[in-house]
Amino acid sequence: MSEEKNPGFGTLSIWSGEEKKDGWERTTQVPVAHSVSYGYKDLDTWLDVALGKAEGHIYSRNTNPTVTVFEEKMRQLEGAEAATSFSTGMAAISNTLYSLLKPGDRVVSVKDTYGGTNEIFTRFLPRLNVDVALCPTTDHEAIEAAVAKGCDVLYLETPTNPTLKVVDIERLAKAGHDAGAIVLVDNTFSTPINTNPISLGADGVIHSATKYIGGHADALGGVLCGSEKIVKGAYAYREINGATLHPMAAYLMIRGIKTLALRIERQSESAMKIARFLKAHPFIEDVFYPGLETHENHEIAKKQMRSFGGMMSFFLKGDFDNIRTFLPRLKYAHLAANLGTVETVAGPPRTTSHVEVSQEQRAAMGIPETLIRYSVGIEDADDLIADLSQALEYAKNH
Predict the structure, then answer these.
(1) Has 114 been annotated as catalytic?
(2) Residue 343, burial from CB neighbour count under 10 angstroms (0-12, 13-18, 19+)
(3) Catalytic residue among 186, 203, 237, 373, which?
């Protein structure tokens, strides 16, 4: 008899977390549990649920039936022991870090993290007497050296936002563990469809679920997947500090997850075509996409990503005035501070990923002012290429 095969990501996206449907009145879709509290007819059962000795819910700031399904889907997709959710991606990042760190601890990370994350590292953690070392993102030796000097949390982001740098998770996770550190990875850009950091040695994986997980730009949320110990600590912190995921947002993300594998496949395929087109265009200075053979971290990306995702960035020749001319000419792109949606989204870091930081800080992070972050949607790739072509031609001539 052949061994039972583990389900693929498309199957997990549909069915995971929905195994238990008691009390759902035979619904085929997960209902939205808007109830704030949950009643019990006897104190003993109520107490057992409150103490975690029995399954159930008591108050939706703590747990909620709809939210629990979302968390279980993400847990299975990331191959984690546990998962807990948050009201936003930044809530997931901040709550996880604050639950793990105390005064006197040391964090090692990279310079190319998302702007909000960078603000935590440069502004908020130092106030709590937490030492932060930010290393050149692609200099693995420098990161390993910083970790070896002492590290309680090693925080990685790959691919990075917005310059799409890629770090070797397996290599750096080993360095982190050798130093006794907890290793966290922001997997928002790659998604569990393309990368599973836990299988590469990470202890915890964070997503801004607002992006690819939800996929439709209609719900905010974040999630942490990882070991029982890390997730339990982050949950306890979030439970008291209150950054709870709303059940309606959880429902919308459950719906989004069901097409996640399909969306990522389409977006990755289209992004590769678009990146090759842009790379060859005379008005483009450079393109950052890990699927391109010219990308400095292409070999690492090939090793740890199943495909290269729908995110890219590129910058035009000339100055910021060319960006002002180019972006409004795009017909098939929202000019907005979001990514990972079914529609293509475009914008410069100064209004999107790094709006919180100064121009000098962006320059120090290697982010050109003429950079455009481009999130490929599920439109026809040929239409997106034609749209980019006409906008580039217009900008070049004006």
Answers:
(1) yes
(2) middle
(3) 186
Q: Is 0.85 surpassed by the pTM of this model?
A: yes
**Could you give the 3-state DSSP secondary structure of residue 295?**
coil
> Would you mind telling me the total number of residues written for the chain in this entry?
398
Q: Which of the following CATH numbers is that of domain 9-257: 3.40.640.10, 3.90.320.10, 3.40.1010.20, 3.30.420.40?
A: 3.40.640.10
Q: Which of 98, 114, 235, 237 is catalytic?
A: 114
* 123 is an active site residue: no
The partner residues of 371 in beta bridges, in order of sequence, read 315
Task: For residue 315, give the nearest of 263, 279, 339, 262 by alpha carbon.
Answer: 279
Domain 260-397 maps to which CATH number in 3.90.1150.10, 1.20.120.910, 3.40.50.1100, 3.40.50.720? 3.90.1150.10
Closest CA to 364 of 134, 107, 157: 134
The model's pLDDT over 1-42, given as tens digits with 9 standing for 90+, comes to 456 788 999 999 999 998 865 667 788 999 999 999 999 999
Q: Which of 59, 61, 279, 329 is catalytic?
A: 61
In the annotation, is 73 catalytic?
no
CA dihedral (89, 314, 367, 110) positive or negative: positive
222-226 and 345-347 as β-strands: parallel, antiparallel, unpaired? Answer: unpaired
**61 counts as catalytic:** yes
Secondary structure (3-state) at 160: coil
Q: Is 176 exposed, middle or buried (0-12, 13-18, 19+ CB in 10 A)?
A: buried
Say which amino acid occupies 325: T
